[in-house]
Amino acid sequence: MEQQIEVLRGEALEAIGAVSDQPSLDAARVRFLGKSGAITTLSEGMRHVAKEDRPRFGKLLNDLRQAVTSALEAQEIRLLEKADAAAAASLDLTLPGTFPGAGTLHPLTQLMDRAVKCFRRMGFAIADGPDIETEWHCFDALNTPPDHPARNEQDTFYLPDGRLLRSHTSTVQIRVMETTPPPVRIIAPGAAYRRDEVDATHLAQFTQMEGLYVAENVSLADLKGTLEFFFRELFGPDTDLQFRPHFFPFTEPSYEIDIRTEALGNQWMELAGCGMVDPAVFEAVCERRGDRVFDPESVSGFAFGFGLDRLAMNLAKISDIRMLVENDLRFLRQF
């Protein structure tokens, strides 16, 4: 048997050294190491070897298996190096290279970055919250009555367990007040969801930015000054703003903001809603917290919100809001 092992070693190493391609190498591996290979067949003959000789022959067989395995691995490396060299030989290093196209941020991301930087200069911190919310955070805490149209299934995406996709990022304001005592000064950019018909000016999912400032003696003048500074930073110092009285359940008094600038054709355009936080919102937060740190007799605040998609449309003169989500490179390369 010892002679058989030596003969098989020489045969295997010679056959492996002679292969010139990967299929031949795979065939050699099966021939010598496969389940029906030569080494396996030889190992089955160990049952006929005397008991006292089995350790010596077993060691010889293991050495043979290791030698063949090492030879196969070394030959595979040589074949790969040969293939790489052949591929490199066909390269013409004098040909000019292909310049990779430089990407850029999505126009919505660019606008969000500008808005965040502007509000951070005024001392606002960024806050975040879940997209899937409870009715309490989305409506009840924001003084929205049960019969309000926004709570209808025709306007809001409800889940089978009673939760919903948030219809605004005002929910983040409530969550921040639940865990953080005043003063609070935050902005909450993020996705919002409504059952709107998708057309040139509406999406079922859009990007919203809301803000909240609560402290002692916060006034309407603070609200107006904050938003006038922001929109003039965004659209230019010559931008005109007007605050029109409006109604929102969670603010009182409430306003819609219109702006007029040459960039928008010098016509008034509605861009945002805002107002002083309704005392009922503070009372709901106090009840949930179990203390009176947001007592409306002690603190006051303002809130605002606007859609970043609409702002991006106005700034970039985009005629169809759907262009922002279609991922058409012909459109995105303009930014």
The structure class reads alpha+beta
What pattern of helices and strands is seen along the backbone? HHHHHEEHEHEEHEEEHEHH
Strand percent estimate = 15-25%
**Low-pLDDT segments:** none
- What's the story with the biggest beta sheet? 7 strands, mixed
CATH class of the largest domain: Alpha Beta
Structural commentary:
The relative contact order is 0.10. The chain has helices at residues 2-18, 22-33, 38-44, 54-89, 107-121, 135-138, 170-179, 220-235, 279-289, 308-316, 329-332; strands spanning 125-126, 132-133, 164-165, 184-193, 205-215, 240-248, 251-260, 269-277, 300-307. The chain is built from eleven helices and nine strands. The model has no long low-confidence stretch (mean pLDDT 86). Helix 2 (22-33) packs antiparallel against helix 4 (54-89), helix 5 (107-121) packs across helix 10 and helix 7 (170-179) crosses helix 9. The chain is elongated, with a radius of gyration of 36 Å. The termini are far apart. The longest helix has 36 residues, at 54-89. It has two domains: 2-89; 107-332, Bira Bifunctional Protein, Domain 2 (BirA Bifunctional Protein, domain 2). 42% of the residues lie in helices and 19% in strands. The protein is α+β, with helices and mostly antiparallel strands and 335 residues long. The chain has a seven-stranded mixed sheet with strand order 1-4-5-9-8-7-6, sandwiched between helices. A two-stranded antiparallel ribbon has the order 2-3. Strand 6 (240-248) and strand 7 (251-260) form a beta hairpin.
